[in-house]
Amino acid sequence: MGEMFVKRGARLVHSDEVAHELMEPGQPVYDEVVRRFGRGILASDGAINRSQLAEAAFGNPGGAPPRVNELNAIVHPAVIAYENEWMQELGRREPNAIAVVEAALILEAGAAGRFDRLVVVTCHPEQRIARFARRMGISEDAARAEVTRRMAAQIPDEEKVKAADFVIDNSGSLEATEQQMERVFAHLRSQM
Question: Mean of the per-residue pLDDT values for the chain?
């Protein structure tokens, strides 16, 4: 979704990509995640194995209890600090830029107040599963289990919609989504 805004001139940072960078070997976040979750989350090259970390953080049926809040307490403050620095620098360089922070957990991180506007993108649950399966190259059953596990750690979409300034329903065609995004972008542009 963020790329649609970029095509119209917005600047974008992906929180997931920032988190991945911060969890690279040698970074303080990496060190703390490994200290708290153990070396069992590491791949043979020393990088964090994301699926092992997800299992440790989200728990598994009949296994360890979820520790996602513990992981978020390590990662979210560092991601927020990075994004704040990025937005400040962008504001100095391009005072009239529209800065977009694409993140799934803005409300969960208690970070919504940092932004002038909150745009929530939704879609039907079955579409979320099918899209995840395609993106990850896994079966729909595996995708359903993973999406269900991840969504259990998030605020329900209904609550996110209530907190939003704008809602884009991504359940329809790409054209319909682009039209909604265009209206949001036009409104943001008019506020400058």
Answer: 91
